[in-house]
Write a structure and sequence with these properties.
The protein is mainly alpha-helical. The protein has helices spanning about 10-15, 60-65, 75-80, 105-150. The protein is about 45% helix and about 0% strand. The relative contact order is 0.11.
């Protein structure tokens, strides 16, 4: 729509500054188009959707690994999980219906297996962090001893 075809509405603001918005070239911009007048998309097909990986279960070993950077003995406790079995809570516990009462026995075993796999992964990380810290500590002690005895 050319600017001359736009009805001229006058306001006190326009009269004061001597400028009308109707005369502005920005009203002819393609950014002023309504949604119905928008350009068509470049591609009709949407990109493929990818499966979202399920979040990792929260385990004690994960927290021990992370907090081990603040207090390294947590890595010892995290590595100890490698030698401790993971068992489901007793079904006669205080909770209503027991642990995961809404799931079948097969589903509970699958959850335990997944949690154990995740817990072992974080426990191995604790073990590796502990070994690396011990190695760096031993190298530091040997270096200080060599400097003091040279």
């Amino acid at each position: 729509m050319p600017p001359s075809a736009v009805p001229a509405e006058r306001s006190p603001f326009d009269d004061f500054f001597g400028y009308t918005m109707a005369a502005s070239r920005t009203h002819e911009s393609r950014h002023e188009l309504s949604v119905a007048d928008a350009l068509p998309p470049y591609v009709d097909d949407l990109p493929p959707t990818y499966a979202v990986k399920a979040p990792e279960p929260v385990t004690l070993a994960k927290y021990l690994f992370k907090f081990g950077f603040l207090f390294p003995p947590f890595w010892i406790m995290g590595a100890w999980i490698l030698w401790s079995p993971l068992r489901a809570p007793n079904s006669d516990s205080d909770t209503e219906g027991g642990w995961m009462a809404d799931k079948s026995e097969l589903e509970r075993k699958r959850v335990i297996a997944e949690m154990r796999k995740t817990e072992v992964r974080w426990a191995l990380r604790c073990l590796w962090a502990l070994l690396i810290l011990s190695l760096l500590g031993a190298i530091g002690v040997i270096a200080v001893w060599a400097v003091l005895h040279s």
